[in-house]
From TrEMBL, chains A, B:
<protein>
    <submittedName>
        <fullName>XRE family transcriptional regulator</fullName>
    </submittedName>
</protein>
<keyword id="KW-0804">Transcription</keyword>
<dbReference type="GO" id="GO:0003677">
    <property type="term" value="F:DNA binding"/>
</dbReference>
<dbReference type="GO" id="GO:0003700">
    <property type="term" value="F:DNA-binding transcription factor activity"/>
</dbReference>
<feature type="domain" description="HTH cro/C1-type">
    <location>
        <begin position="11"/>
        <end position="65"/>
    </location>
</feature>
<dbReference type="GO" id="GO:0005829">
    <property type="term" value="C:cytosol"/>
</dbReference>
<keyword id="KW-0805">Transcription regulation</keyword>
<dbReference type="InterPro" id="IPR010982">
    <property type="entry name" value="Lambda_DNA-bd_dom_sf"/>
</dbReference>
<dbReference type="Pfam" id="PF01381">
    <property type="entry name" value="HTH_3"/>
</dbReference>
<dbReference type="InterPro" id="IPR001387">
    <property type="entry name" value="Cro/C1-type_HTH"/>
</dbReference>
<dbReference type="InterPro" id="IPR050807">
    <property type="entry name" value="TransReg_Diox_bact_type"/>
</dbReference>
<keyword id="KW-0238">DNA-binding</keyword>
Length: 69, 69
DNA sequence: CTGTGACTTGCAGTCCGTG
DNA sequence: CCACGGACTGCAAGTCACA
């Protein structure tokens, strides 16, 4: 289980819990829709800057996105 | 307080707690010596791949490196 | 609404050195 | 042991069309 996969799962779970689509979250976090899609499919190793934007819009602590199940 | 700064502080604190120098940690995590120094000075936005390597050698959960004080 | 391939660009990350 | 610099490479970052 890589950290990319952990991030992907946590991102999707918290996004759905917030009732947001990939598009809505992307728009609010000011990043591209397809990039959020890429992250949820483990295509890239996100930087802390992106994690910060996502966590802010999901209204959660950034560390929750990297938390192992 | 940016997430880069949070990472920088947590990295330094956990590194010292493990009794490792920047050089030793870098060598064990198989990343560049000067890059660990750069991260502790908030020069770059680290990727989750690097965070994973660092956390593994520090024997802590990756989420602890992004945890807000 | 989301997955995907193709593409360009800026920065993450490396390697050499210095005081 | 660490901060800091320059130069380099590869990938994250960001955009688009299409299914």
């Amino acid at each position: 289980m890589t950290l990319r996969e952990v991030l992907a799962e946590n991102l999707k779970r918290h996004r759905l819990a917030a009732g947001l689509s990939q598009e809505e979250l992307a728009h609010r976090a000011d990043i591209d829709r397809t990039y959020v899609s890429s992250l949820e499919r483990c295509q890239y190793a996100a930087t802390v800057d992106v994690i910060e934007k996502l966590a802010r819009e999901l209204k959660i602590d950034a560390s929750l996105l990297l938390q192992q199940p």
